[in-house]
Specification:
Blueprint: H1 38-61, H2 72-117, H3 119-134, H4 141-148, H5 152-176, H6 180-188, H7 193-230, H8 236-245, H9 249-277
Helix pairs in contact: 2-3, 2-5, 2-7, 2-8, 2-9, 4-5, 5-7, 7-8, 7-9, 8-9
Protein backbone atom coordinates (compact mmCIF):
# COMPACT_ATOMS: atom_id res chain seq x y z
CA UNK A 1 0.00 0.00 0.00
CA UNK A 2 1.55 3.33 -1.06
CA UNK A 3 1.90 6.34 1.17
CA UNK A 4 -0.98 8.07 -0.56
CA UNK A 5 -3.23 5.07 0.09
CA UNK A 6 -2.45 4.90 3.80
CA UNK A 7 -5.39 4.31 6.09
CA UNK A 8 -6.37 7.61 7.72
CA UNK A 9 -6.15 7.87 11.49
CA UNK A 10 -9.51 8.81 13.00
CA UNK A 11 -9.30 11.22 15.89
CA UNK A 12 -11.01 10.15 19.08
CA UNK A 13 -13.10 13.26 19.45
CA UNK A 14 -16.20 13.71 21.53
CA UNK A 15 -19.06 11.48 20.48
CA UNK A 16 -22.37 12.90 19.36
CA UNK A 17 -25.30 13.63 21.58
CA UNK A 18 -27.41 10.71 22.78
CA UNK A 19 -24.58 8.16 22.50
CA UNK A 20 -24.45 4.89 24.41
CA UNK A 21 -23.93 4.79 28.12
CA UNK A 22 -20.23 4.69 28.92
CA UNK A 23 -18.14 4.48 32.03
CA UNK A 24 -17.22 8.13 31.79
CA UNK A 25 -20.90 9.09 31.65
CA UNK A 26 -21.21 7.74 35.20
CA UNK A 27 -18.86 10.43 36.47
CA UNK A 28 -21.59 12.07 38.54
CA UNK A 29 -20.90 9.41 41.17
CA UNK A 30 -17.22 10.29 41.28
CA UNK A 31 -17.20 14.04 41.06
CA UNK A 32 -17.36 14.51 37.29
CA UNK A 33 -14.37 15.53 35.23
CA UNK A 34 -13.09 17.93 37.83
CA UNK A 35 -12.11 17.67 41.47
CA UNK A 36 -14.78 18.19 44.09
CA UNK A 37 -14.69 21.51 45.86
CA UNK A 38 -14.06 21.80 49.57
CA UNK A 39 -17.73 22.61 50.19
CA UNK A 40 -18.84 19.44 48.37
CA UNK A 41 -16.41 17.27 50.33
CA UNK A 42 -17.56 18.86 53.59
CA UNK A 43 -21.21 18.29 52.68
CA UNK A 44 -20.57 14.62 51.86
CA UNK A 45 -18.74 14.11 55.16
CA UNK A 46 -21.46 15.96 57.09
CA UNK A 47 -24.21 13.78 55.58
CA UNK A 48 -22.23 10.64 56.41
CA UNK A 49 -21.71 11.80 60.00
CA UNK A 50 -25.41 12.59 60.39
CA UNK A 51 -26.51 9.23 58.98
CA UNK A 52 -24.01 7.16 60.99
CA UNK A 53 -24.55 9.19 64.14
CA UNK A 54 -28.33 9.01 63.73
CA UNK A 55 -28.26 5.23 63.37
CA UNK A 56 -26.00 4.89 66.42
CA UNK A 57 -28.21 7.18 68.49
CA UNK A 58 -31.45 5.48 67.44
CA UNK A 59 -30.12 2.01 68.27
CA UNK A 60 -28.95 3.18 71.68
CA UNK A 61 -32.19 5.00 72.48
CA UNK A 62 -34.31 1.97 71.64
CA UNK A 63 -31.85 -0.45 73.27
CA UNK A 64 -31.62 -2.64 70.20
CA UNK A 65 -29.47 -5.70 71.02
CA UNK A 66 -26.28 -6.22 69.02
CA UNK A 67 -27.43 -9.66 67.90
CA UNK A 68 -30.36 -7.99 66.09
CA UNK A 69 -28.72 -4.85 64.73
CA UNK A 70 -25.29 -3.68 65.89
CA UNK A 71 -24.42 -0.01 65.91
CA UNK A 72 -21.78 1.53 63.65
CA UNK A 73 -19.36 1.77 66.58
CA UNK A 74 -19.72 -1.96 67.32
CA UNK A 75 -19.20 -2.79 63.64
CA UNK A 76 -16.09 -0.59 63.49
CA UNK A 77 -14.65 -2.23 66.61
CA UNK A 78 -15.43 -5.73 65.26
CA UNK A 79 -13.70 -4.84 61.99
CA UNK A 80 -10.62 -3.66 63.87
CA UNK A 81 -10.60 -6.58 66.30
CA UNK A 82 -11.41 -9.38 63.83
CA UNK A 83 -9.51 -8.14 60.78
CA UNK A 84 -6.42 -10.30 61.46
CA UNK A 85 -8.74 -13.33 61.29
CA UNK A 86 -10.73 -12.00 58.31
CA UNK A 87 -7.69 -10.95 56.24
CA UNK A 88 -6.73 -14.48 55.05
CA UNK A 89 -10.31 -15.08 53.92
CA UNK A 90 -10.22 -11.76 52.05
CA UNK A 91 -7.14 -13.04 50.25
CA UNK A 92 -8.91 -16.26 49.26
CA UNK A 93 -11.86 -14.33 47.85
CA UNK A 94 -9.56 -12.01 45.89
CA UNK A 95 -7.74 -14.99 44.36
CA UNK A 96 -11.06 -16.47 43.23
CA UNK A 97 -12.27 -13.13 41.89
CA UNK A 98 -9.11 -12.19 39.99
CA UNK A 99 -8.60 -15.67 38.54
CA UNK A 100 -12.20 -16.26 37.49
CA UNK A 101 -12.70 -12.73 36.22
CA UNK A 102 -9.51 -12.85 34.13
CA UNK A 103 -10.58 -16.11 32.49
CA UNK A 104 -14.14 -14.95 31.91
CA UNK A 105 -13.10 -11.51 30.59
CA UNK A 106 -10.62 -12.95 28.09
CA UNK A 107 -13.14 -15.48 26.79
CA UNK A 108 -15.86 -12.83 26.69
CA UNK A 109 -13.75 -10.38 24.68
CA UNK A 110 -12.68 -13.07 22.22
CA UNK A 111 -16.27 -14.25 21.77
CA UNK A 112 -17.47 -10.67 21.28
CA UNK A 113 -14.89 -10.13 18.55
CA UNK A 114 -15.81 -13.39 16.84
CA UNK A 115 -19.58 -12.92 16.79
CA UNK A 116 -19.33 -9.34 15.54
CA UNK A 117 -17.04 -10.35 12.67
CA UNK A 118 -18.85 -13.57 11.79
CA UNK A 119 -22.66 -13.25 12.03
CA UNK A 120 -23.09 -16.99 11.45
CA UNK A 121 -21.13 -17.69 14.66
CA UNK A 122 -23.48 -15.41 16.57
CA UNK A 123 -26.51 -17.43 15.44
CA UNK A 124 -24.88 -20.56 16.85
CA UNK A 125 -23.54 -19.08 20.09
CA UNK A 126 -26.40 -16.70 21.00
CA UNK A 127 -28.74 -19.35 22.53
CA UNK A 128 -26.01 -20.61 24.84
CA UNK A 129 -25.03 -17.10 25.89
CA UNK A 130 -28.68 -16.42 26.69
CA UNK A 131 -28.74 -19.52 28.89
CA UNK A 132 -25.61 -18.38 30.74
CA UNK A 133 -26.98 -14.87 31.27
CA UNK A 134 -30.38 -15.99 32.55
CA UNK A 135 -29.15 -18.88 34.72
CA UNK A 136 -28.01 -17.93 38.25
CA UNK A 137 -24.49 -19.29 38.52
CA UNK A 138 -25.02 -20.08 42.19
CA UNK A 139 -27.44 -22.79 41.10
CA UNK A 140 -24.51 -24.57 39.43
CA UNK A 141 -22.14 -24.31 42.39
CA UNK A 142 -23.31 -27.53 44.14
CA UNK A 143 -22.84 -29.42 40.87
CA UNK A 144 -19.38 -27.91 40.39
CA UNK A 145 -18.46 -28.83 43.97
CA UNK A 146 -19.53 -32.44 43.38
CA UNK A 147 -17.30 -32.55 40.31
CA UNK A 148 -14.28 -30.52 41.44
CA UNK A 149 -14.40 -30.64 45.25
CA UNK A 150 -14.39 -27.83 47.83
CA UNK A 151 -11.26 -26.00 46.65
CA UNK A 152 -10.71 -23.02 44.39
CA UNK A 153 -11.68 -24.70 41.13
CA UNK A 154 -15.51 -24.68 41.35
CA UNK A 155 -15.52 -21.09 42.61
CA UNK A 156 -13.22 -19.84 39.87
CA UNK A 157 -15.34 -21.59 37.24
CA UNK A 158 -18.50 -20.02 38.70
CA UNK A 159 -16.93 -16.55 38.69
CA UNK A 160 -15.77 -16.99 35.08
CA UNK A 161 -19.24 -18.12 34.00
CA UNK A 162 -20.80 -15.11 35.73
CA UNK A 163 -18.36 -12.48 34.42
CA UNK A 164 -17.77 -13.73 30.88
CA UNK A 165 -21.26 -13.17 29.41
CA UNK A 166 -21.45 -9.66 30.90
CA UNK A 167 -18.16 -8.73 29.26
CA UNK A 168 -19.13 -10.34 25.96
CA UNK A 169 -22.54 -8.64 25.67
CA UNK A 170 -21.21 -5.14 26.37
CA UNK A 171 -18.12 -5.58 24.20
CA UNK A 172 -20.19 -6.91 21.29
CA UNK A 173 -22.53 -3.93 21.60
CA UNK A 174 -19.56 -1.58 21.47
CA UNK A 175 -18.02 -3.34 18.47
CA UNK A 176 -21.29 -3.06 16.53
CA UNK A 177 -22.17 0.55 17.29
CA UNK A 178 -19.43 2.15 15.27
CA UNK A 179 -19.97 4.92 12.73
CA UNK A 180 -20.49 3.08 9.44
CA UNK A 181 -19.12 6.08 7.53
CA UNK A 182 -15.72 5.60 9.14
CA UNK A 183 -15.70 1.93 8.22
CA UNK A 184 -16.74 2.72 4.66
CA UNK A 185 -14.00 5.33 4.39
CA UNK A 186 -11.40 2.89 5.69
CA UNK A 187 -12.53 0.25 3.20
CA UNK A 188 -12.23 2.79 0.40
CA UNK A 189 -8.57 3.20 1.39
CA UNK A 190 -8.09 -0.56 1.17
CA UNK A 191 -8.20 -1.41 4.88
CA UNK A 192 -8.58 -5.08 5.72
CA UNK A 193 -11.19 -6.42 8.15
CA UNK A 194 -8.52 -6.90 10.80
CA UNK A 195 -7.21 -3.37 10.36
CA UNK A 196 -10.72 -1.95 10.64
CA UNK A 197 -11.29 -3.96 13.81
CA UNK A 198 -8.10 -2.84 15.58
CA UNK A 199 -8.03 0.76 14.37
CA UNK A 200 -11.73 1.64 14.41
CA UNK A 201 -13.99 -0.89 16.13
CA UNK A 202 -11.82 -1.64 19.17
CA UNK A 203 -10.96 1.98 20.09
CA UNK A 204 -14.54 3.17 19.56
CA UNK A 205 -15.88 0.23 21.60
CA UNK A 206 -13.52 0.83 24.54
CA UNK A 207 -16.09 2.66 26.75
CA UNK A 208 -18.58 -0.19 26.41
CA UNK A 209 -15.82 -2.75 26.98
CA UNK A 210 -14.89 -1.03 30.25
CA UNK A 211 -18.53 -1.01 31.34
CA UNK A 212 -18.71 -4.73 30.62
CA UNK A 213 -15.53 -5.37 32.59
CA UNK A 214 -16.84 -3.40 35.55
CA UNK A 215 -20.20 -5.19 35.56
CA UNK A 216 -18.48 -8.54 35.07
CA UNK A 217 -16.16 -7.89 38.01
CA UNK A 218 -19.06 -6.96 40.29
CA UNK A 219 -21.07 -10.02 39.18
CA UNK A 220 -17.94 -12.09 39.75
CA UNK A 221 -17.56 -10.77 43.30
CA UNK A 222 -21.19 -11.59 44.11
CA UNK A 223 -20.82 -15.06 42.64
CA UNK A 224 -17.56 -15.73 44.51
CA UNK A 225 -19.15 -14.80 47.84
CA UNK A 226 -22.26 -16.85 47.09
CA UNK A 227 -20.15 -19.87 46.13
CA UNK A 228 -18.22 -19.56 49.39
CA UNK A 229 -21.49 -19.53 51.31
CA UNK A 230 -22.69 -22.67 49.56
CA UNK A 231 -19.68 -24.80 50.37
CA UNK A 232 -16.10 -24.64 51.56
CA UNK A 233 -14.24 -23.61 54.67
CA UNK A 234 -12.61 -20.38 53.50
CA UNK A 235 -13.46 -17.02 51.93
CA UNK A 236 -15.52 -14.01 52.99
CA UNK A 237 -18.73 -15.85 52.13
CA UNK A 238 -17.75 -18.56 54.59
CA UNK A 239 -17.19 -15.87 57.22
CA UNK A 240 -20.68 -14.51 56.61
CA UNK A 241 -22.17 -17.96 57.12
CA UNK A 242 -20.07 -18.61 60.23
CA UNK A 243 -20.79 -15.29 61.92
CA UNK A 244 -24.53 -15.43 61.18
CA UNK A 245 -24.80 -18.98 62.53
CA UNK A 246 -23.04 -17.87 65.72
CA UNK A 247 -25.18 -14.70 65.91
CA UNK A 248 -22.05 -12.53 65.86
CA UNK A 249 -23.71 -9.69 64.01
CA UNK A 250 -21.02 -7.00 64.50
CA UNK A 251 -18.50 -9.33 62.82
CA UNK A 252 -21.09 -10.21 60.17
CA UNK A 253 -21.62 -6.57 59.22
CA UNK A 254 -17.87 -5.96 59.32
CA UNK A 255 -17.51 -8.52 56.51
CA UNK A 256 -20.41 -6.89 54.66
CA UNK A 257 -18.56 -3.57 54.96
CA UNK A 258 -15.43 -5.14 53.47
CA UNK A 259 -17.44 -6.52 50.55
CA UNK A 260 -19.06 -3.12 49.96
CA UNK A 261 -15.62 -1.53 49.93
CA UNK A 262 -14.43 -4.08 47.36
CA UNK A 263 -17.39 -3.23 45.13
CA UNK A 264 -16.63 0.49 45.40
CA UNK A 265 -12.96 -0.11 44.60
CA UNK A 266 -13.93 -2.10 41.50
CA UNK A 267 -16.07 0.80 40.30
CA UNK A 268 -13.40 3.40 41.05
CA UNK A 269 -10.72 1.32 39.29
CA UNK A 270 -12.65 1.05 36.04
CA UNK A 271 -13.84 4.65 36.30
CA UNK A 272 -10.24 5.84 36.48
CA UNK A 273 -9.24 3.59 33.59
CA UNK A 274 -12.14 4.92 31.55
CA UNK A 275 -11.29 8.50 32.46
CA UNK A 276 -7.74 8.00 31.23
CA UNK A 277 -8.30 5.87 28.13
CA UNK A 278 -11.88 6.64 27.07
CA UNK A 279 -12.54 10.19 28.30
CA UNK A 280 -13.16 11.26 24.71
CA UNK A 281 -16.48 9.42 24.89
CA UNK A 282 -17.81 11.58 27.74
Amino acid sequence: MSEGDAIPEFSKTKAGEGHDVSLTNLSAFAGGPGIRSGAEVAAIIAVAVVIIGGIELALRLFNVPHYIMPGPSAIAYALYDEFPLIAPHLGYTLVELVSGFSIGAIIGLVMAAVITQFPFAEKIVAPYILILVTTPMLALVPLLILRFGFGYTPRIIAVALAAGPMVMINAATGFRRVDSAKIALARSYGASTLQIFWRIRAPMALPMILVGLMIGAIFGLLTAVGAEMVGGGFGLGNRLTTYSSMIQMPQFFAVVLILSTLGILIYVLFFLIGKKWASWEA
